[in-house]
Design brief:
about 0% helix; single chain; flat; 11 strands
């Protein structure tokens, strides 16, 4: 059940042809060299409009010496005709690597916990627009709590890994 996770908060606004990538490089003790950069997870694109948590499982690199990279790439060859105007880019904060057992909970009273957001418009807090409050308690997850979500955005609110128990016969969980 334990794993090693890269966790960080991000805010991004990319034009059509520009992206961000999280990458990792591993040190080889024998050759005393660094490996090529390998991409972790999906590329960052479009707009988030809110700060959101990203979590990447890096358990496969346990025991290794690594470097992390946040690669911003902009395609100037077609700008501005095909890609639109340049944008604000990518902002990163509170980067951590944690060895832990991720726990599943859908209660957002203590914040985002071990959930993560892909191409983030998801926020945790008290809704100001939309519903008059959370279903229960003071906080819930929502797409932009204080207004309207932006157009042209796909965003996932992703649960931590959950290992479900086996059932015997017709019994439920």
């Amino acid at each position: 059940g334990e794993g090693i996770y890269l966790r960080f908060y991000q805010w991004f606004s990319y034009s059509t042809c520009d992206f961000g990538y999280v990458q990792i490089s591993v040190y080889d003790d024998l050759s005393e060299t660094w490996s090529n950069w390998f991409q972790l997870g999906k590329k960052i694109s479009r707009n988030s409009n809110v700060w959101s948590l990203r979590v990447d499982d890096i358990s496969d690199y346990a025991g290794s010496t690594i470097r992390l990279c946040f690669l911003h790439t902009a395609d100037a060859s077609t700008w501005p005709n095909d890609c639109g105007a340049s944008s604000h880019g990518w902002f990163i904060d509170k980067v951590t690597i944690e060895k832990k057992e991720l726990n599943f909970t859908g209660d957002f009273e203590m914040g985002i916990g071990d959930w993560e957001v892909s191409n983030g418009v998801w926020q945790i807090g008290s809704p100001v627009a939309g519903p008059s409050g959370s279903f229960e308690g003071r906080q819930s997850a929502g797409t932009v709590l204080d207004g309207y979500y932006p157009g042209n955005t796909d965003s996932r609110l992703i649960s931590p890994p959950v290992t479900l128990p086996f059932t015997v016969g017709g019994e439920g969980i």
